Amino acid sequence: MARMSAPDAPSAAPRILSGMQPTSDSLHLGNYLGALVNWVRLQDEFDAFYFVADLHALTVPTDPAVLRQRTRVTAAQFLAGGVDPKRSAVFCQSHVTEHAELGWVMNCLTAEGEARRMTQFKDKVAKGGNANVGLLTYPMLMAADILMYDAAYVPVGEDQRQHLEITRDLAERFNARFGDGGLVVPEPYIVKGAAKIQDLQDPAAKMSKTGSSPKGLIDLMQDPAKIAKNIRSAVTDTDAEVRYDVEHKPGVSNLLVIHSVLSGSSIEELEASFAGRGYGDLKKEVADVVVEALTPFQARMRELLDDPAELDRILASGAESARAVARTTMERVRERVGLLPAGR
Ligand code: TYM
């Protein structure tokens, strides 16, 4: 489905929306397989909005210049991964100021205890992380991101499921309090298997920008030799059978999922092809498949980063499309909750 060139031209296709935080120098293979490949697939069918969650990233103290650079890199990685700015709006969350405004409305609909019960908040506090109030209200801003665009679906990895549940609760609460039809209640779009890519060194934990060690993670910009090395040293088990069994063989299962999503072969086909062969063969093939997918990605990244003005133009045009929708939603929200029109 083609994006309309006029920013406020209505589209008949249902909307989808998703975002990623610019909290590291590059996205990793979990972000790519768990979310980005689906973003790319879904932009054909849906009116898609994809953004860099730079406001969310402020919950982690970061040098301002580094945050700006990571924001650009994250947006460029969406494009290098195949998001087409002609079909999808690609933008920065902070460029559409309505997100923060709707986030405030969501804060006022959330009980303090409800916010404190969110797993990601509890985990970060337990790890002794910086528990600023932004971290506590993070899910309410995320709900605002989604509800702003009347998104029917939200393509994300498994770790975002609880945030989507609270988003649905908040939309239902808003509608119950202020009248039906106020906000669209979204559905998660979480693809089984790839929705949780595990750390290569600790297959019981998810691959994560902040939690994984350098050997546990494949950064999308990593040198191919380093990628192959990390995959070769992935933790497996003492058995020798290549079989998908998340409970007993989490490391091998993780490698099979990575191979399957990138090569398009089913898990069953892979199990058959590796019958009687060892983990060394599996790792070599997985490394080849990953390097083959990331080589054109990395080349495209170099081109995109060489032309920052073009990237900024894409982000400006994406923000314009996003703002047109956000403005309409906020007019509706302001009217429903009882804020006086500004009389512009
Ligand atoms: P973030 O930046 O942590 O992750 C971006 C996307 O990558 C997925 N993901 C994974 N998928 C599979 N395996 C993994 N190991 C893995 N690690 C990360 C995440 O599920 C996500 O889809 N809160 C969000 C950003 C956000 C957002 C939104 C998302 C802000 N507002 C509105 C959707 C809609 C986050 O921190 O994602």
Any descriptors?
binds tryptophanyl-5'AMP, 5 strands, globular, two-stranded parallel sheet, mainly alpha, disordered N terminus, three-stranded parallel beta sheet
Number of strands: 5
* Overall pLDDT confidence: 93
Shape: globular
β-sheet strand percentage = 5-15%
Which small-molecule ligands are present, each listed once?
tryptophanyl-5'AMP
Low-confidence stretches: 1-9
* CA distance, first residue to last residue: 35 Å
Question: Helix- and strand-based class?
Answer: mainly alpha
Helix content: 40-55%
Largest sheet: 3 strands, parallel
Order of SSEs: EHEHHEHHHHHEHEHHHHH
Radius of gyration computed on alpha carbons = 21 Å
Number of helices: 14
- Strand order, main sheet: write it out: 1-2-3
